[in-house]
């Protein structure tokens, strides 16, 4: 009987369908992994390609789509983050079904590598864990800069593919007044976001330029990269020194006396005006009225700052103190004081200056601000042949320009340093 019972049990076991025992101890009840299906911006730029994405707008949100619904309670900064150099970017994170959106609370940093990091702490609604992954992309666009003194800012030209004034139509040039300008890679390495001047025929003529000298105070800020195949550069100008002009003075680049200057016109009372230069040649102090000049030892001098390099220039004049200043890359390089021109002051000398004042021609386009030369082509106040923008052999600016701003206030040193820090690559 015992043998027969064992036989019957064995036969019963053999009759069990194949796989029954495997099914009873299988892991099919364990949830599958939560995996990324797609990662992109809210504008449709893919962030999960083999090559890191570029051209991502600074204001973009990141949208992650998974293979199944996400447990919203795990969609937190502890488990899915947007980072710069390992530091979380402040953002609002929301989950809806299989989609998580990371919405930064402020614009991303320009030209900077960002990463999206996903950890295994992120769960599906069925309990499945996310695969730990990292995705990298580079942001794109002009710096998210809040310029100082916005109530006194008269114009802002970002040169992001055109020459429009962000402050409005008044100073936006007509298409016919933008000649031979192309838009090329900017100082952050992004295409089409800086204006390129060819050094012979390129010029932009901005209307109503005399409005920039409503005074009494004044500030101008811009980025340029001068091409050293040309020596003298008329970078920009409003009726030359009858308004204001900035130039990189001619002569060999390695000459000890090469310099830069902003020549500006001033009201010296009684309806009279005088021009004076805020100029710097990288040599020590020693001129009338000068209180400071940064010394840069020869033979480098100006080359260190302006030769084939992006450089940030800010020039200011404050009427209440009669002090003018120049800053290069956020550092003061020149300062002068009209009160030091004579003592006691004898009007109408420069010591009596009450503020900046336009003294150029106001008709026939004579009041247009020229970019790429020291005066516009219409009704020129300086009629010498060397000051004719129609002659391609003259000192037209050859190089790149970006982020030009003009204010009717004198920026403080702290504001200038902050602006440079925000805008530098």
Quick description:
This protein has 425 residues and is mainly β.
Structural class: mainly beta
User: What Rg, in angstroms, do the CA atoms define?
Assistant: 32 Å
Describe the main β-sheet briefly: 9 strands, antiparallel
Shape: elongated
Range of strand content: 25-35%
For the record, the CATH architecture of the largest domain stands as Sandwich
Q: Fraction of residues in helices?
A: under 10%
The arrangement of helices and strands along the chain is HHEEEEEEEEEEEEEEEEEEEEHEEEEEEH
Domains counted in the coordinates: how many?
2
Q: Would you report the number of β strands?
A: 26
Please state the average pLDDT score: 88
Protein described:
The structure is a single chain. This protein has 425 residues and is mainly β. The protein folds into two domains: 36-140, Immunoglobulin-like (Sandwich); 150-423, Jelly Rolls, CATH 2.60.120.200. Helices cover 8% and strands 34% of the residues. The protein contains four helices and 26 strands. Strands 10, 12, 13, 15, 20, 21, 22, 23 and 26 form a nine-stranded antiparallel beta sheet that branches. Strands 11, 14, 16, 17, 18, 19, 24 and 25 form an eight-stranded antiparallel beta sheet that branches. Strands 2-9-8-4-5 form a five-stranded mixed beta sheet, with no helix packed on it. The longest helix is centred in the first third of the chain and has 13 residues, at 2-14. The chain is elongated.
